[in-house]
């Protein structure tokens, strides 16, 4: 089989990484060349991504990839919805972080023009206060008028690398401005929201070539002239779902900063019930639909740990904390992880304690107990969302795949298996980078086939770890109200 090397840039909300992979129809070997923290920064006007810092990390990883040998292509994915406004080559300010709290005015302005029920029929998206259309509506008019293009984060990195301005379709589906059935910009909606049509660039599909590296940059990075930047499922969740080694009858949980919980469908479900359950229909690779709901995810745990680290002035050992949490023998009460108070950065233990007090539930006494409650509460939300995804889409679900950083959390995997009464198949950890790699490798001709063929390769080379339900001694049940 023809083999070759591609480089995946995967920017998560917790960390960014650059991975080089050698791929053929029976090979998938991944090497991490760079990993850098993604630390947002609060400026006078709000919370922003440190884009220059991330870009520096990307360039360092790419330089290492080129130093190791020829690279056919580069693919970029990141978290969704956030963007930079551009005027020519210039970025009009650092992109805002979706956890910045400025968007409420945008939500009200959009819903005054287009009620949510109509939006849902048009774009199929769950309500998240930071969806791009609400963020755009919160921008000062003068800035929107000055901008000639809005570029989503992966498209922005691709622009820096190549000079080409495109909107990759899976990520464009998270803006709220793409028709859920057409996969094209919803011109009428864009006009009704008063956005100038030129702001949204030409759409491209995963697998399409974006362009060669800028000449000066290629030389500086030591790249060969033939290296191309190629579109992948640039929404990280789109790439993650490509990398899930699943077969029919499986649901997935892409579990990192967020828990993205759902099923893959051939067509969207925009019923009243789906809208009321706040399920989304995001555009996937090869025209598939990701029918899922955002569950708060490991953000709650990592933000809790960050608070303790601020208090202690020293790092907290996560595996040790999880081991202590697993050893807790008192019944942990679950809380509603999706309560909006947990969205912004801040003192998470205090907010969780506040939730418990409001609901008349004793507050976990120790760090281990609180960590246990967080994991059990996440598992409870994941399990409920898997059930809802199956019911709303009419899918029979028999197993659940859990991928991403959270797949290393055995306590979480066991808790999900117990609550669902189904096996949880954990891993790969880097499903997102794998999905990114697979789409590039197929575009380069190192692989062929549909998503099922690509997933079969992942299942063969990186078999998941299986957690059976009922595997925990004296498995604990949920005791608290939700
Ligand atoms: P993102 O892609 O959103 O940046 P990741 O998929 O990298 O996030 O997942 C990050 C999360 O993975 C961390 O918040 C942490 O909870 C979890 N994690 C990382 N390493 C471990 C580990 N060794 N054991 C358990 N959980 C881990
Ligand atoms: C996960 C993710 C998710 C979006 C959120 C903003 O990283 O892309 O799919 O909803 O970030």
From TrEMBL:
KW Lipid biosynthesis (keyword) present: no
Gene3D superfamilies: 3.30.420.40
Domain of life: Bacteria
GO terms of biological process kind: D-xylose metabolic process; rhamnose catabolic process
All copies of domain Carbohydrate kinase FGGY N-terminal, residue ranges: 8-243
Transmembrane spans: none
Molecular function via GO: ATP binding; rhamnulokinase activity
InterPro entries: ATPase_NBD, FGGY_C, FGGY_Carb_Kinase, FGGY_N, Rhamnulokinase
Phosphoprotein as UniProt keyword: no
Keywords carried by this UniProt record: ATP-binding, Kinase, Nucleotide-binding, Rhamnose metabolism, Transferase
Residue ranges of domain Carbohydrate kinase FGGY C-terminal in the record: 251-444
Recorded family membership: Belongs to the FGGY kinase family.
PANTHER family registered for this protein in UniProt: GLUCONOKINASE, SUGAR KINASE
This protein's name: Rhamnulokinase
Lineage start: Bacteria, Bacillati, Actinomycetota, Actinomycetes, Micrococcales
